[in-house]
Amino acid sequence: MTDALTASPRDWWEAARPHTWPNAFAPVIAGTGAAAFAGGAHIGRGVLALAVAWALIVGVNYANDYSDGVRGTDDERTGPTRLTASRLARPEQVKAAALGAFGVAAVFGVILSYEAGALWLVAVGAACIAAAWFYTGGTKPYGYSGFGEAAVFVFFGLVAVLGTEYTQSGSVSGVGALCAVAVGAISASVNLANNIRDIPTDAAAGKRTLAVRLGNARARRLFTVLTLVPFAASVLLAFGFLPALFGFAALPLAVASILRVQRGAEGAALIPVLGLNGRAMLIWALITALALAWGSLAMGAAIQF
Protein backbone atom coordinates (compact mmCIF):
# COMPACT_ATOMS: atom_id res chain seq x y z
CA MET A 1 0.00 0.00 0.00
CA THR A 2 1.02 3.59 -0.60
CA ASP A 3 1.26 6.08 2.25
CA ALA A 4 -1.58 8.55 2.61
CA LEU A 5 -1.50 12.04 1.12
CA THR A 6 0.67 11.11 -1.87
CA ALA A 7 -1.99 11.64 -4.56
CA SER A 8 -0.69 13.64 -7.49
CA PRO A 9 -2.81 15.83 -9.76
CA ARG A 10 -2.68 12.98 -12.27
CA ASP A 11 -4.08 10.59 -9.65
CA TRP A 12 -6.98 12.95 -8.98
CA TRP A 13 -7.53 13.30 -12.72
CA GLU A 14 -7.63 9.53 -13.21
CA ALA A 15 -9.93 9.09 -10.22
CA ALA A 16 -12.37 11.52 -11.88
CA ARG A 17 -12.49 8.86 -14.66
CA PRO A 18 -12.43 10.99 -17.82
CA HIS A 19 -13.34 7.92 -19.88
CA THR A 20 -16.83 8.16 -18.34
CA TRP A 21 -17.37 11.81 -19.24
CA PRO A 22 -19.07 11.04 -22.57
CA ASN A 23 -21.91 9.74 -20.37
CA ALA A 24 -22.37 13.37 -19.28
CA PHE A 25 -21.66 15.14 -22.57
CA ALA A 26 -23.67 12.92 -24.92
CA PRO A 27 -27.12 13.43 -23.35
CA VAL A 28 -26.74 17.21 -23.34
CA ILE A 29 -25.65 17.21 -26.98
CA ALA A 30 -28.52 14.92 -27.97
CA GLY A 31 -31.03 16.94 -25.96
CA THR A 32 -29.85 20.14 -27.62
CA GLY A 33 -30.29 18.49 -31.01
CA ALA A 34 -33.84 17.48 -30.08
CA ALA A 35 -34.55 21.05 -28.93
CA ALA A 36 -33.15 22.37 -32.21
CA PHE A 37 -35.39 20.06 -34.21
CA ALA A 38 -38.33 21.43 -32.21
CA GLY A 39 -37.18 24.96 -33.05
CA GLY A 40 -36.10 25.87 -29.53
CA ALA A 41 -32.32 25.34 -29.22
CA HIS A 42 -30.55 27.74 -26.85
CA ILE A 43 -26.78 27.38 -26.80
CA GLY A 44 -26.28 29.26 -23.51
CA ARG A 45 -28.63 26.93 -21.65
CA GLY A 46 -26.98 23.99 -23.36
CA VAL A 47 -23.62 25.08 -21.92
CA LEU A 48 -25.18 25.35 -18.45
CA ALA A 49 -26.65 21.87 -18.81
CA LEU A 50 -23.24 20.58 -19.87
CA ALA A 51 -21.66 22.06 -16.74
CA VAL A 52 -24.32 20.41 -14.56
CA ALA A 53 -23.87 17.01 -16.20
CA TRP A 54 -20.07 17.14 -16.09
CA ALA A 55 -19.97 18.15 -12.42
CA LEU A 56 -22.45 15.38 -11.59
CA ILE A 57 -20.39 12.65 -13.24
CA VAL A 58 -17.18 13.85 -11.59
CA GLY A 59 -19.05 13.90 -8.28
CA VAL A 60 -20.42 10.39 -8.69
CA ASN A 61 -16.97 9.09 -9.64
CA TYR A 62 -15.36 10.56 -6.52
CA ALA A 63 -18.33 9.42 -4.42
CA ASN A 64 -17.93 5.87 -5.71
CA ASP A 65 -14.19 6.03 -5.02
CA TYR A 66 -14.91 7.09 -1.45
CA SER A 67 -17.78 4.72 -0.68
CA ASP A 68 -16.24 1.63 -2.30
CA GLY A 69 -12.90 2.46 -0.73
CA VAL A 70 -14.13 2.71 2.84
CA ARG A 71 -16.12 -0.51 2.39
CA GLY A 72 -13.09 -2.35 1.01
CA THR A 73 -14.83 -3.45 -2.20
CA ASP A 74 -12.15 -1.75 -4.35
CA ASP A 75 -9.18 -3.46 -2.68
CA GLU A 76 -8.68 -6.02 -5.46
CA ARG A 77 -10.33 -4.10 -8.29
CA THR A 78 -8.93 -3.87 -11.82
CA GLY A 79 -9.15 -0.47 -13.46
CA PRO A 80 -8.28 3.21 -13.07
CA THR A 81 -6.68 4.68 -9.95
CA ARG A 82 -8.76 4.52 -6.77
CA LEU A 83 -7.65 7.20 -4.35
CA THR A 84 -9.29 5.79 -1.24
CA ALA A 85 -8.56 2.09 -1.71
CA SER A 86 -4.95 2.82 -2.70
CA ARG A 87 -4.51 5.18 0.27
CA LEU A 88 -3.34 7.91 -2.03
CA ALA A 89 -5.71 10.32 -0.28
CA ARG A 90 -7.64 10.30 2.96
CA PRO A 91 -11.27 9.18 2.65
CA GLU A 92 -12.49 12.55 3.91
CA GLN A 93 -10.55 14.31 1.14
CA VAL A 94 -12.18 12.18 -1.55
CA LYS A 95 -15.58 12.70 0.07
CA ALA A 96 -14.99 16.46 0.09
CA ALA A 97 -14.09 16.34 -3.62
CA ALA A 98 -17.34 14.51 -4.35
CA LEU A 99 -19.42 16.96 -2.34
CA GLY A 100 -17.62 19.89 -3.98
CA ALA A 101 -18.47 18.57 -7.44
CA PHE A 102 -22.09 18.06 -6.42
CA GLY A 103 -22.10 21.64 -5.13
CA VAL A 104 -20.91 22.91 -8.51
CA ALA A 105 -23.65 20.88 -10.21
CA ALA A 106 -26.23 22.35 -7.82
CA VAL A 107 -25.16 25.95 -8.47
CA PHE A 108 -25.26 25.59 -12.25
CA GLY A 109 -28.50 23.61 -11.98
CA VAL A 110 -30.23 26.41 -10.07
CA ILE A 111 -29.01 28.97 -12.62
CA LEU A 112 -30.24 26.80 -15.50
CA SER A 113 -33.63 26.26 -13.85
CA TYR A 114 -34.01 30.01 -13.28
CA GLU A 115 -32.97 30.85 -16.85
CA ALA A 116 -35.46 28.30 -18.20
CA GLY A 117 -38.25 29.61 -15.96
CA ALA A 118 -38.68 26.18 -14.40
CA LEU A 119 -37.49 26.31 -10.79
CA TRP A 120 -39.27 23.00 -10.14
CA LEU A 121 -36.31 21.43 -11.96
CA VAL A 122 -34.24 22.16 -8.84
CA ALA A 123 -36.05 19.22 -7.23
CA VAL A 124 -35.08 17.03 -10.18
CA GLY A 125 -31.48 18.12 -9.75
CA ALA A 126 -31.61 17.25 -6.06
CA ALA A 127 -32.89 13.78 -6.99
CA CYS A 128 -29.96 13.40 -9.41
CA ILE A 129 -27.45 14.28 -6.69
CA ALA A 130 -29.12 11.89 -4.24
CA ALA A 131 -29.03 9.11 -6.84
CA ALA A 132 -25.36 9.82 -7.50
CA TRP A 133 -24.46 9.59 -3.81
CA PHE A 134 -26.54 6.54 -2.90
CA TYR A 135 -25.31 4.50 -5.88
CA THR A 136 -22.53 3.24 -3.62
CA GLY A 137 -23.11 5.43 -0.55
CA GLY A 138 -25.33 5.05 2.49
CA THR A 139 -26.17 1.89 4.42
CA LYS A 140 -27.92 0.18 1.50
CA PRO A 141 -26.38 1.38 -1.77
CA TYR A 142 -28.63 0.47 -4.69
CA GLY A 143 -25.63 -0.13 -6.95
CA TYR A 144 -24.82 -3.14 -4.77
CA SER A 145 -28.29 -4.55 -5.46
CA GLY A 146 -28.21 -4.53 -9.25
CA PHE A 147 -29.93 -1.21 -10.00
CA GLY A 148 -26.91 0.74 -11.24
CA GLU A 149 -27.63 0.34 -14.95
CA ALA A 150 -31.28 1.32 -14.45
CA ALA A 151 -30.19 4.47 -12.63
CA VAL A 152 -27.73 5.36 -15.40
CA PHE A 153 -30.48 4.84 -18.00
CA VAL A 154 -32.87 7.10 -16.08
CA PHE A 155 -30.53 9.89 -14.95
CA PHE A 156 -27.92 10.01 -17.75
CA GLY A 157 -30.49 9.11 -20.38
CA LEU A 158 -34.10 10.11 -19.79
CA VAL A 159 -33.56 12.92 -17.28
CA ALA A 160 -30.45 14.41 -18.88
CA VAL A 161 -31.67 14.38 -22.49
CA LEU A 162 -35.27 15.38 -21.85
CA GLY A 163 -34.22 17.88 -19.17
CA THR A 164 -31.83 19.51 -21.63
CA GLU A 165 -34.52 19.63 -24.30
CA TYR A 166 -37.09 21.07 -21.89
CA THR A 167 -34.84 23.85 -20.57
CA GLN A 168 -34.27 25.01 -24.14
CA SER A 169 -37.56 24.45 -25.94
CA GLY A 170 -40.02 24.45 -23.02
CA SER A 171 -41.35 21.00 -23.89
CA VAL A 172 -40.29 17.43 -24.64
CA SER A 173 -40.90 15.61 -27.90
CA GLY A 174 -40.97 12.17 -29.44
CA VAL A 175 -37.61 12.93 -31.06
CA GLY A 176 -36.24 13.82 -27.64
CA ALA A 177 -37.64 10.62 -26.16
CA LEU A 178 -35.93 8.50 -28.83
CA CYS A 179 -32.64 10.29 -28.18
CA ALA A 180 -33.09 9.80 -24.44
CA VAL A 181 -33.66 6.06 -24.77
CA ALA A 182 -30.72 5.74 -27.17
CA VAL A 183 -28.24 7.61 -24.98
CA GLY A 184 -29.56 6.03 -21.78
CA ALA A 185 -29.15 2.52 -23.18
CA ILE A 186 -25.59 2.87 -24.45
CA SER A 187 -24.63 4.80 -21.33
CA ALA A 188 -25.93 1.91 -19.24
CA SER A 189 -23.88 -0.44 -21.42
CA VAL A 190 -20.71 1.36 -20.30
CA ASN A 191 -21.66 0.79 -16.68
CA LEU A 192 -22.51 -2.84 -17.44
CA ALA A 193 -19.14 -3.45 -19.13
CA ASN A 194 -17.44 -2.04 -16.06
CA ASN A 195 -19.41 -4.44 -13.88
CA ILE A 196 -18.80 -7.43 -16.18
CA ARG A 197 -15.10 -6.78 -15.72
CA ASP A 198 -15.53 -6.81 -11.95
CA ILE A 199 -17.82 -9.85 -11.60
CA PRO A 200 -15.24 -11.98 -9.71
CA THR A 201 -14.22 -9.30 -7.20
CA ASP A 202 -17.73 -7.88 -6.79
CA ALA A 203 -19.20 -11.32 -6.13
CA ALA A 204 -16.50 -12.03 -3.56
CA ALA A 205 -17.19 -8.69 -1.85
CA GLY A 206 -20.95 -9.29 -1.75
CA LYS A 207 -21.62 -6.59 -4.32
CA ARG A 208 -24.63 -7.91 -6.28
CA THR A 209 -24.41 -5.77 -9.40
CA LEU A 210 -26.63 -6.52 -12.38
CA ALA A 211 -23.71 -8.34 -14.01
CA VAL A 212 -23.28 -10.54 -10.94
CA ARG A 213 -27.01 -11.25 -10.80
CA LEU A 214 -27.31 -12.09 -14.51
CA GLY A 215 -24.12 -14.05 -14.72
CA ASN A 216 -21.31 -13.61 -17.23
CA ALA A 217 -23.02 -14.91 -20.40
CA ARG A 218 -26.36 -13.12 -20.00
CA ALA A 219 -24.68 -9.88 -18.93
CA ARG A 220 -22.63 -9.93 -22.13
CA ARG A 221 -25.75 -10.49 -24.24
CA LEU A 222 -27.49 -7.57 -22.53
CA PHE A 223 -24.42 -5.44 -23.22
CA THR A 224 -24.83 -6.14 -26.95
CA VAL A 225 -28.50 -5.16 -26.93
CA LEU A 226 -27.89 -1.91 -25.02
CA THR A 227 -25.01 -0.97 -27.31
CA LEU A 228 -27.14 -1.32 -30.45
CA VAL A 229 -30.16 0.68 -29.21
CA PRO A 230 -28.90 4.04 -30.60
CA PHE A 231 -28.76 2.61 -34.11
CA ALA A 232 -32.32 1.33 -33.86
CA ALA A 233 -33.22 4.85 -32.74
CA SER A 234 -31.44 6.28 -35.80
CA VAL A 235 -33.69 4.20 -38.03
CA LEU A 236 -36.81 5.47 -36.27
CA LEU A 237 -35.56 9.07 -36.31
CA ALA A 238 -34.95 8.75 -40.05
CA PHE A 239 -38.70 8.46 -40.63
CA GLY A 240 -38.89 12.10 -39.55
CA PHE A 241 -35.61 13.31 -41.04
CA LEU A 242 -33.56 10.98 -43.22
CA PRO A 243 -30.09 12.44 -42.37
CA ALA A 244 -30.51 11.00 -38.86
CA LEU A 245 -29.09 7.82 -40.43
CA PHE A 246 -25.68 9.50 -40.36
CA GLY A 247 -25.63 8.38 -36.72
CA PHE A 248 -24.56 4.99 -38.07
CA ALA A 249 -21.08 6.49 -38.43
CA ALA A 250 -20.58 5.45 -34.79
CA LEU A 251 -21.44 1.80 -35.52
CA PRO A 252 -17.86 0.57 -36.16
CA LEU A 253 -16.83 1.58 -32.63
CA ALA A 254 -19.90 -0.13 -31.18
CA VAL A 255 -19.23 -3.30 -33.17
CA ALA A 256 -15.60 -3.31 -32.01
CA SER A 257 -16.70 -3.19 -28.37
CA ILE A 258 -19.36 -5.87 -28.91
CA LEU A 259 -16.86 -8.23 -30.54
CA ARG A 260 -14.42 -7.78 -27.67
CA VAL A 261 -17.12 -8.51 -25.10
CA GLN A 262 -18.64 -11.45 -26.98
CA ARG A 263 -15.23 -13.03 -27.56
CA GLY A 264 -14.81 -13.35 -23.82
CA ALA A 265 -12.43 -10.55 -22.89
CA GLU A 266 -11.94 -10.40 -19.12
CA GLY A 267 -10.35 -8.16 -16.52
CA ALA A 268 -8.07 -5.47 -17.91
CA ALA A 269 -8.87 -6.62 -21.47
CA LEU A 270 -12.36 -5.15 -21.00
CA ILE A 271 -11.12 -1.67 -20.12
CA PRO A 272 -10.92 -0.55 -23.80
CA VAL A 273 -14.62 -1.40 -24.15
CA LEU A 274 -15.48 1.52 -21.88
CA GLY A 275 -13.66 3.92 -24.18
CA LEU A 276 -15.05 2.38 -27.37
CA ASN A 277 -18.65 2.67 -26.24
CA GLY A 278 -18.04 6.07 -24.72
CA ARG A 279 -16.74 7.35 -28.05
CA ALA A 280 -19.54 5.60 -29.95
CA MET A 281 -22.10 7.29 -27.70
CA LEU A 282 -20.51 10.72 -28.08
CA ILE A 283 -20.14 10.44 -31.86
CA TRP A 284 -23.70 9.18 -32.24
CA ALA A 285 -25.04 12.04 -30.11
CA LEU A 286 -23.00 14.68 -31.91
CA ILE A 287 -23.85 13.52 -35.44
CA THR A 288 -27.51 13.00 -34.57
CA ALA A 289 -27.71 16.44 -32.95
CA LEU A 290 -26.11 18.07 -36.00
CA ALA A 291 -28.52 16.23 -38.29
CA LEU A 292 -31.48 17.38 -36.20
CA ALA A 293 -30.18 20.96 -36.10
CA TRP A 294 -29.79 20.81 -39.88
CA GLY A 295 -33.40 19.71 -40.13
CA SER A 296 -34.44 22.59 -37.90
CA LEU A 297 -32.56 25.16 -39.99
CA ALA A 298 -34.02 23.67 -43.16
CA MET A 299 -37.45 24.35 -41.71
CA GLY A 300 -36.50 27.95 -40.98
CA ALA A 301 -36.06 27.73 -37.21
CA ALA A 302 -33.52 29.93 -35.43
CA ILE A 303 -30.97 28.80 -32.84
CA GLN A 304 -30.72 31.14 -29.86
CA PHE A 305 -27.59 32.09 -27.95
In short:
This protein has helices spanning 9-15, 22-37, 43-71, 91-115, 121-134, 148-169, 174-197, 199-204, 210-214, 216-238, 251-262, 271-298. The protein is an all-alpha fold and 305 residues long.
Structural features, described:
- The protein is mainly alpha-helical and 305 residues long.
- Helix content is 69%, strand content 0%.
- The chain has twelve helices and no strands.
- The chain has helices spanning 9-15, 22-37, 43-71, 91-115, 121-134, 148-169, 174-197, 199-204, 210-214, 216-238, 251-262, 271-298.
Task: Give the low-pLDDT segments.
Answer: none
- Termini gap: 51 Å
- Tally of strands: 0
Q: Could you report the average pLDDT, rounded to the nearest whole number? A: 91
**Content-based structural category:** mainly alpha
Question: With helices defined by DSSP (H or I, 4 residues minimum), what is the helix count?
Answer: 12
Shape: globular
What is the succession of H and E elements?
A: HHHHHHHHHHHH
From the alpha carbons, calculate the radius of gyration and give it in angstroms: 19 Å
Helix content: 55-70%
Largest sheet: none
Beta-strand residue fraction = under 5%
